[in-house]
Amino acid sequence: MNENVVVSADWLAERLDEVTVVDVRESWEYDGIGHVPGAVNVPFDSFRDEEGESESAERSGSDPRDAGTLPGAETWADLMGEAGVSADDTVVAYDDTHGVFAARFLVTAEAYGHTDLHLLDGDYSSWMREHETSGDAPDPDPTTYEVRDPEHSPFVGREEVEAAIDDPDSVLVDTRDDWEFEEGHLPGAVNLDWRELVDDETRGLKPRDELESILDAHDITPDKRVVLYCNTARRISHTYVVLSSLGYENVAFYEGSLTDWESVGGPIETES
Question: Basic and acidic residues bias located where (predicted)?
Answer without folding.
Answer: 56-66
